[in-house]
Amino acid sequence: MRDLAHLLARPGQEIAALDLAGVRGADLGEVSDARARSAYRARLAELDTELAEADTGGDVERSARAAAERDAPVAHLTAAYGLGGRARRAGDPGERARSAVTARIRDALRRIERAHPELGHHLDRSVRTGSFCAYQPEDPVSWQL
Is there a contact between 91 and 25 (Cβ–Cβ < 8 Å)? Predict the structure, then answer.
């Protein structure tokens, strides 16, 4: 409720989820370091070669083994890279704050809607969450907080 009260007191103003959460600090670094990512890519190249050879030679069992082994490095590399091919960061405080604040606000909105459906509906339409949160009502509302 504290996060929601903070937003209601400042209609139209974007407030960083980091500020609402009171979080500061550094992230935990990249999900996977460059050397590990390079090793995974090299192993994928080897497995791709092995798959091609097995398929060309008609060796179904060898092809199936290589395909199954290929799944692990593909999964790791998929988790290690984000948008635009940039390495993902582990423990990003901004992402943790966004997630925590969004969950807290959504929980507060559900509780309000159970007690007062009309108010809950208004707030659900007017509160925006994310890296920056805001209360942006369609029509101005004066609150006593």
Answer: no
